[in-house]
Q: What sequence folds into this?
């Protein structure tokens, strides 16, 4: 990324971001540090400096942490846990539930015995394997198994 300063007093920058070498695309983003704005929109949405704002901060030799919103500071995180949480009362003291009975979906229940069911999504590459069926373990032919293979060596007991 390369930066160009547009105005000195307003801390406005043009940040040029070049994509990977394959696409050879170049993007231009206008970053306004005092207004906390960037053309990409992430600086405004997250209230946290995006990569373009970080490049502008580096060029301006400004500390990027001053552009982080107070919500992300450890002080505000600790203030959340400063309040007392009320304990959960005994189940006998709960108010009775009025409404439809809640039952779990039996189709989503996991089977505890047997082999696990595959959750893999099949694509076109797998269709050939599914159409051919199982193959013989000896000759790799279709339509029969190892036990019924016509090419299997026969062991006759002729003495």
A:
């Amino acid at each position: 990324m390369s930066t160009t300063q547009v105005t000195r007093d307003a801390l406005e920058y043009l940040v040029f971001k070049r994509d990977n070498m394959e696409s050879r695309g170049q993007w231009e983003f206008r970053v306004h540090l005092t207004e906390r704005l960037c053309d990409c929109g992430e600086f405004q949405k997250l209230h946290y400096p995006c990569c373009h704002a970080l490049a502008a901060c580096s060029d301006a030799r400004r500390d990027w942490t001053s552009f982080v919103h107070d919500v992300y500071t450890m002080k505000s995180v600790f203030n959340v846990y400063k309040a007392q949480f009320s304990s959960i009362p005994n189940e006998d003291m709960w108010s009775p539930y009025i409404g439809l009975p809640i039952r779990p979906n039996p189709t989503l229940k996991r089977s505890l015995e047997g082999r696990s069911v595959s959750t893999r999504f099949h694509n076109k590459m797998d269709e050939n394997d599914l159409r051919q069926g199982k193959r013989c373990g000896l000759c790799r032919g279709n339509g029969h198994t190892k036990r019924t293979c016509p090419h299997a060596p026969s062991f006759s007991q002729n003495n």
Observations:
- The two ends are 87 Å apart (CA to CA).
